[in-house]
């Protein structure tokens, strides 16, 4: 092989060192280079090769192990164990299964992980289907390639090395680098920037396997490029934003892999190791079950900081980010502010074991639609420790979009929580047939959790919290439906002297039929419009919502309001046609005039025992100061339980 360089920094000794290091690398997916010889051309020969002068010319010879004896030309059974076949021939004549495509891709990816871990990393830059050889068993492969980063790739030599036929597999940024003549950037600290070039080539090889060598490209607008474009025109299109075309209808897991290989934004690019961690479990599942999952195998990866300790700085920007790799199981629910998924951790690098300790247990991942989650909110959420409060594990950022298929332009806040398989209290009431003996213990646990949030326990809660949206849909049950936990605390409000701290309650943050009269007054903004109008909103507002939850669970998920004259209050949009007020404002006005949850006429009210009904009635007192606090609720509910010979509520305030 001949090599010409115009750089004064590329000496014969440097080329020898790089090439000698390369032949010491051993990986089962690489052809074994046994030896290398590097020598300069004579001045006369160098002048003929580079007549413009000022160039250094070297001749490089390799000795490599012979795997083939001869390369098998067809697909008949190998004549001997030494017969290997070109991958391109195999792909052209056989329609590969998804598992086979993934298997070969993972072999290549594993080899790239090995190369990119070297110091400095090796970048091949021109992997293509034509330089991959399959073993006679078709279960393993060898890559016959030299790392472009082991030599100085100036424009003259790099085009010679890549070759006209290889340009369709080359990373556009590398093409741009070649055109600018910045080959020296492929040495030293700049190398890590271009490791993605090998992943781009891998994506092209995957598409070759899927399409049986019908690799096509599109421009930045998604329009297919003509196969008759000149090399210069093709390169220009790719550098301007073009990419390989991923056909419709290919398996989701293949689409995922290709899209991540073809990512152009450096901030969103995954390393070879990250890609391998994503897709190896999917391949293993196919091997074990023989089935191909059409759903995204991974939601994303979650970046989160180390826990704050005395030995670590508290500024988030100064703390190291850990990575949790998450396998998607299913959707749990979608709301106005977030989507929630059931996930499993498949791997992570958390040295503290914060997430790794959960092993393969299902967890809940809440992906917030907001662009940030305040650090003070994270601190409060992670500090909550109570058997009736959802356990928040880590708060971080998700650089991958919701569908797990493409990197997101704006990473989203994500919260990893314990998963409770029993669904919500609302669903249990609506779809099940719970009796009073089932519901009172659960209501007692909700009161228990509220007592902890409100800071009423014997163990001081440094962050007394007003929830602001207590309802059945935010209370989660364990699988046996014997225990429950209050969740959806991301929009909590800190309390001072039983009322919300500066800023007060945010309008429209709660749920209409569970909002207390003082909250609805603030929502409607009628009456007292002064900045102090919302100062009555606080712990007592959560107690009203608790009363609504009691009505909800006994009446199959409904909370029906009646006016003082017995008229049922609706929140339907038809009200707007009569009053010219929004349904929300009209509902708030009814409540301000005395409407309240029905404790008399509904089926649920008639199912509710007298003692419990009296407790709920106190919770629904119109004057906040007349409502019991959460600790008193626990005591009152214990009396009801003892009276029904069910048991009693052990008031738990928190855990150290």
Automatic annotation (TrEMBL):
A GO molecular-function descriptor: ATP binding
InterPro entries cross-referenced by the UniProt entry: Kinase-like_dom_sf, Prot_kinase_dom, Ser/Thr_kinase_AS, Ser/Thr_Kinases-Pseudokinases
Gene3D superfamilies named in the record: Transferase(Phosphotransferase) domain 1 (1.10.510.10)
SMART domains with a match to the protein in the record: S_TKc
Entry keywords, A to Z: ATP-binding, Kinase, Nucleotide-binding, Transferase
Residue stretches spanning the membrane: none
Domain Protein kinase: 1-283, 326-641
Protein name listed in UniProt: Protein kinase domain-containing protein
Organism the protein comes from: Hypsibius exemplaris (Freshwater tardigrade)
